[in-house]
Design goal:
By secondary structure, the chain is α+β, with helices and mostly antiparallel strands. It folds into two domains: 143 residues, Aminopeptidase, CATH 3.40.630; 171 residues, Gcn5-related N-acetyltransferase (GNAT) (Aminopeptidase). Helix content is 37%, strand content 23%. The strands form three sheets. It has a seven-stranded mixed beta sheet, with helices on both faces. A hairpin with a 2-residue loop joins strand 11 and strand 12. Helix 2 runs antiparallel to helix 7 and helix 5 crosses helix 8.
């Protein structure tokens, strides 16, 4: 994966393009971005054929377990983003199990975490994991009518107060978003921030986005030329997903998130995408309500964790020791 230009000629790219279950997070682009940014990960992606003869891919990252590095852990995909098998045909639960089994049977297997996928057709089970998505097929005018009245009012207010939304085109704009919006958000969230990323991720994202501008866009919100908010938005097949929306605290009176999402949705409708995915809300009720104000519906995720019994015993023992020390 040393040449980003070559990604679009791979079998993985072809399968992801043909798969109705694939999101950007299942694509080789997301995988490439992570592998070029985080040296602790290595590629363990599986490709092959299902029992029905159709081609399939399981995007997979490998890390060393903390058990003195003797075991290997796997994740699909990075940062809890959507993962699992994608195929050129429908995937049964049996297909998933048989495809994963060779990894699980490895002597050095520790555990595997597979994030849920809202596009994977399966029964809704008891789960607290969900994303919120908006169907775009009715067109923007109809979608606008289904916004809550307060949401429409906030959008008008932000535009009236001078907010402007556009796609960043230069590395300087990426850096201004990172310093003004992202880092201010991380500082505000403090220990509640689930993950913190260095400038390297955004720099590498800018570079990759120059090669694949239709798939990766950093949308920014400006006021008098100053970048106050923004979001990375990823495009794959008919699915658009917002990732990592942040804003400087000084922007809140201008309702930047309302204006930002509205413009992204408008653009996605114009470009004939069918679905806008706000992404999961980390259990924050206020964020869930905000997304509902756009008319977004819940789609449940079904993550899966497979653990080697020996590694499970190690984790359990370590936790007991930590509890004893804290007592």
């Amino acid at each position: 994966m040393n040449n980003p230009e070559a990604l679009k000629t791979s079998d993985w790219w072809r399968i992801a393009r043909q798969s109705s279950q694939a999101t950007f997070f299942h694509s080789p682009l997301w995988h490439y971005l992570i592998l070029t940014t985080f040296p602790e990960f290595s590629d363990a992606t599986i490709s092959g054929q299902l029992a029905n003869g159709f081609d399939a891919v399981l995007p997979l990252l490998e890390t060393r377990a903390k058990m003195r590095g003797l075991l290997k852990n796997y994740t699909s995909t990075f940062a809890g983003c959507y993962g699992g098998i994608i195929s050129t045909n429908e995937i049964s639960l049996g297909d998933r199990k048989s495809f994963i089994q060779p990894i699980v049977d490895r002597a050095q297997f520790g555990q595997m975490y597979i994030s849920g996928n809202p596009l994977f057709a399966q029964p809704v089970a008891d789960t607290t994991d969900f994303t919120q998505m908006l169907n775009l097929t009715s067109g923007f005018d109809e979608i606008w009518k289904n916004y809550s009245s307060s949401n429409r009012s906030n959008i008008r207010k932000g535009i009236r107060m001078g907010l402007a939304v556009r796609v960043a085109t230069s590395k300087d704009e990426y850096e201004r978003y990172y310093k003004n919006a992202y880092q201010n958000s991380i500082k505000r969230w403090g220990s509640a921030a689930r993950r913190q990323y260095t400038w390297a991720l955004f720099r590498n994202g800018f570079t990759l986005g120059k090669v694949y501008p239709k798939n990766m866009k950093l949308w920014i919100v400006e006021l008098n030329g100053e970048v106050l908010a923004g979001a990375w938005v990823f495009y794959w097949n008919s699915h658009v997903v917002c990732w990592q929306a942040t804003a400087h605290r000084n922007a809140f009176p201008y309702r930047p998130y309302n204006v930002l999402h509205n413009e992204i949705i408008r653009d996605a409708c114009t470009s004939n995408y069918q679905c806008y995915d706000f992404n999961p809300s980390a259990g924050l009720a206020g964020v869930v309500r905000f997304k509902q104000s756009f008319g977004a519906r819940k789609f449940y995720l079904h993550p899966e964790t497979i653990v080697n019994p020996a590694y499970q015993f190690y984790l359990h023992t370590r936790q007991r020791i930590q509890n004893f020390r804290q007592a």
